[in-house]
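It would be a great kindness if you could assist me with a short task in structural biology. I am sending you one protein, given as its amino acid sequence and as whole-number tokens for its backbone shapes. I would ask you to consider whether the tokens describe a fold that such a sequence might reasonably adopt. The full record is reproduced below for your convenience.
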Amino acid sequence: MTINIQYVQMPTSESMSDIVIAKLEKLAKKYDWVIKADVFFKLENDPSKMGKICEIRLSAPGPQLFAKSNQDNFEKAAATVVKELENQLAKRKDILKKH
């Protein structure tokens, strides 16, 4: 799987990149038919202490999978997004098994 990470309106972070790559590689081992992952980290001014956004778009057979999370830190946001994508991949796998 190819992983592209982009930081929008914020400095790049090697540690965040490493965390997300490790999580996505686990998904890639479990679901070997995932082709590509586009990861976006965004920082927004939010008075409620949120505003740390992680978005991931996966390319796989069928429509693209997408998840987005807005948390108070990027680690939580990334973990939430990966968990949501894992749920979507499990559903997609069930659909692919039926065909």
Observations:
- The longest strand covers residues 36-43.
- The chain has one domain: 2-98.
- Residues 2-98 form a domain with the Double Stranded RNA Binding Domain fold (CATH 3.30.160.100).
- The CA atoms of residues 2 and 14 lie 17 Å apart.
